[in-house]
Every structure is written in structure tokens, then in C-alpha cells.
Design goal:
By secondary structure, the protein is an alpha+beta fold. The chain has one domain (12-370): 4-Layer Sandwich (Deoxyribonuclease I, Chain A), CATH 3.60.10. The protein is 24% helix and 23% strand. It has eight helices and 16 strands. A six-stranded mixed sheet has the order 3-4-2-1-16-15, with helices on one face. Helix 4 (110-123) links the parallel strand 1 (77-88) and strand 2 (127-133).
Length: 371
């Protein structure tokens, strides 16, 4: 059995317990009481009882965004989720990664693995799209150790061409097919001389995907009077960085072009672009999608404000966008963000790298679709 070192169960624990105690006394620190505790694999629970209790307390008292519990799925519907789970690296050294990209020091701590698994159990999604996965091997290990009871029999995780080795992936209860990537695909133009007010070290080089989107088909089986149908997903992890907006815009233009090629080949095909956009819906890179026929799922939701923030930086940068055909399947007012434990406001990762209860700096975004 593979083990994952518990790197952070040290001096942070007393600090976190103190923070949890403090926050539990602050009005509004917890949005909603937990009424359902997710079931993990019994082996995980039995070996980590005290840790899980601490994680549950942090989930309850250190949630700043999203909602505390995933709502029940709509009858005769299925749930689609996107979730950047932040550095799902295992403890096996990848010899192709070294120096600043060395992977062995990025091993995700056990308490974070459990916190992510608890969130995924709460979601009970049928299709979950993940970002920041080290490899198929790492994902399969995590699935088998922490999600063995979730029915994710269909898994795809492919190299996105990123220097850190992180890739996009999908876990699904429905069959998956036709995966496609565009690693290193040039997007037109070259990098500008300046990056903000400083020098752009890529100046003059051709702009290409930082991380290729992962395109695949989800094959939704027939049910009742509804015939089997296909949902095409583009799982994205756009370039990060305040001054990388030109790069994200180039990526968005290419992805909408790739999506239109799917629509031309398969008229009326339901398509969703979902993942970590590293941009909000008011930014030009996201507006490019809107101008090309995609809709933000939260336009069919009553939720707003802190309930739909997806990143601890107080931004909504993890999105699910649906084309006209896919938008027709979206069940009204079922979009939600599941909150997990956050660092206290004003405390960033440089001050507190992790704590027991922390899953990721992003929160999962979900929506129900009619079968």
C-alpha cells in the first residue's frame, strides 16, 4: 500500500485548533451547520479518527465562501463539477521534474487528501473535472485509497504540457471517450516586451497553450424516454498571473474556435467549458466565451455574493460555461459552490502554508443537468 507522508501535522496543529476555537465564537464564521457527515473509506476513518474530527471542526468554523452542504441532486438529473484540488502530487519522484519544478517536495499532505475526499463525497457528482493532477498514476492512487466507494469507473488524466507536470483530469460514473489535447499549440502572436512594468522573459516567443485544455466526450446513457446523448467537455486551466491577461485571451480565442469545430461537426452538440479560468466573468478572457455563445451557469441561479466565490482570494475564477445546447439541459437554480475550510481573512499562504481541515485554495463548482 502506497503511503503519503503527513508533512504538515506538526506545529500548525496547535495554531489551527486555536484558530478554530477563535472563529467558532465569531458571528457569521460558519454559514450553515453541517447536517450530513460524508462517509469515507472505513480504513481511512479508522486510521485517522482524531485527524478527521479536527478536519470536520475546521470545515464547520473556517468556511468563508460557498455553502456548507451540497444540496440533494435533482431527480432524474446528474451532477457535473469542476474542482482545482491544488497539487495532487504523490510521493513517487518523477525524474523528469527537477530544480524549481521538483515534484517530491509537492506531495499533498494526508490531511489535505482527506479534506478533498470529504468534499468530493459531499458533492456526490457523477462527473468531476479536476485540475492540478500530477499524473494518472497519482489520480488512480487517490481514487482507490480515498474514493473507492464513489463509483468512478471511468478516468482520464493526460499530460497538459505544463513544466510543473500538472494536468487536467476527469472522474466519471458515465463512459468517457475521444480525449484530445493540444500540447504546445501556438495561439497566434508573440509575447510582449513587458510583463506589467517589468521585463517579459518570454518576449518575442510565440504564444502557446500554457496548459492544454482536455477535450473529451461524456456518454450519457438512455433513461426512460430520453435517448442516450453526448456531452462534450473542455476542461481548462488557463494561464495564471495578473499580467497574463493577453495570454488567457489568446487561449480563450483558440478554445472557442476548437469548440465551434465540434459544433460544426456535431450540430446541436451540448458543450461545456469548465475549470480554473484564473479570471472572473468581468474579464475579457471570459467575455470571449460569452461572445461566442457560452453562458455562465450562475445566470440560472439565485445564489450570489460570497456563496459563489470559488477562490480564497475572494474571486470567482472557477467557472462552468455552457453553450446553447448544454444550457438547455441545466436545471434552473442548481448551480452552487461547496465551501471548504479557508485561511482566515488577511492570512495568505506565505503566513500559513496549510492546516488540518485545508483541502485547496479553490472550491468546487457544481450544477445539475437533466438526463
Amino acid at each position: 500500500m502506497r503511503t503519503c507522508p503527513n508533512q504538515s501535522r506538526h506545529i500548525l496543529r496547535p495554531m489551527v485548533i486555536c484558530l478554530v476555537t477563535l472563529l467558532s465564537s465569531v458571528s457569521g464564521a460558519c454559514a450553515i451547520e453541517h447536517s450530513i457527515e460524508p462517509d469515507l473509506d472505513s480504513t481511512v476513518e479508522n486510521e485517522n479518527t482524531a485527524l478527521i474530527e479536527t478536519i470536520a471542526l475546521a470545515e464547520k468554523n473556517m468556511q468563508r465562501y460557498g455553502i456548507s452542504n451540497a444540496p440533494e441532486k435533482t431527480e432524474d438529473a446528474f451532477r457535473v463539477t469542476t474542482y482545482n484540488i491544488e497539487n495532487l502530487f504523490d510521493d513517487v519522484d518523477d525524474p523528469t521534474l527537477s530544480g524549481r519544478d521538483e515534484d517530491i517536495d509537492d506531495t499533498k499532505p494526508e490531511h489535505q487528501l482527506i479534506a478533498v475526499a470529504r468534499a468530493i463525497h459531499k458533492l456526490n457528482s457523477d462527473v468531476i473535472c479536476l485540475q492540478e493532477i500530477e499524473s494518472l498514476d497519482a489520480l488512480m492512487w487517490f481514487k482507490d485509497e480515498y474514493l473507492a466507494d464513489m463509483g468512478y469507473d471511468h478516468v482520464i488524466s493526460l499530460d497538459a504540457g505544463n513544466s510543473r507536470g500538472i494536468e487536467n483530469a476527469v472522474l466519471s460514473r458515465f463512459p468517457l471517450s475521444n480525449p484530445e489535447l493540444w500540447v504546445g499549440k501556438e495561439l497566434g502572436g508573440v509575447h510582449p516586451e513587458k510583463y506589467g512594468s517589468g521585463k517579459n522573459f518570454l518576449a518575442g516567443e510565440k504564444v502557446a497553450f500554457r496548459r492544454s485544455p482536455l477535450k473529451l466526450d461524456v456518454n450519457i446513457p438512455a433513461m426512460g424516454d430520453q435517448d442516450a446523448w453526448t456531452l462534450t467537455l473542455f476542461v481548462v486551466h488557463h494561464k495564471s498571473g495578473r499580467y497574463s491577461q493577453y495570454w488567457r485571451e489568446a487561449e480563450a480565442k483558440m478554445i472557442t474556435k476548437l469548440a465551434s469545430e465540434v459544433e460544426n461537426e456535431h450540430p446541436e452538440r451540448a458543450i461545456m467549458v469548465l475549470g480554473d479560468f484564473n479570471a472572473q466573468n468581468t474579464d475579457e478572457s471570459v467575455k470571449i466565451y460569452m461572445k461566442n455563445g457560452f453562458h455562465d451557469i450562475f445566470t440560472k441561479s439565485k445564489s450570489s455574493g460570497r456563496e459563489i466565490i470559488t477562490h480564497e482570494s475572494n474571486r470567482r475564477i472557477d467557472l462552468i460555461l455552457a453553450n446553447q445546447a448544454a444550457n438547455g439541459y441545466v436545471v434552473k437554480d442548481t448551480a452552487f459552490v461547496l465551501g471548504t475550510a479557508s485561511r482566515p481573512e488577511g492570512v495568505d499562504w506565505r503566513m500559513m502554508d496549510t492546516f488540518e481541515g485545508y483541502a485547496s485554495d479553490h472550491y468546487p463548482v457544481s450544477v445539475d443537468l437533466e438526463r
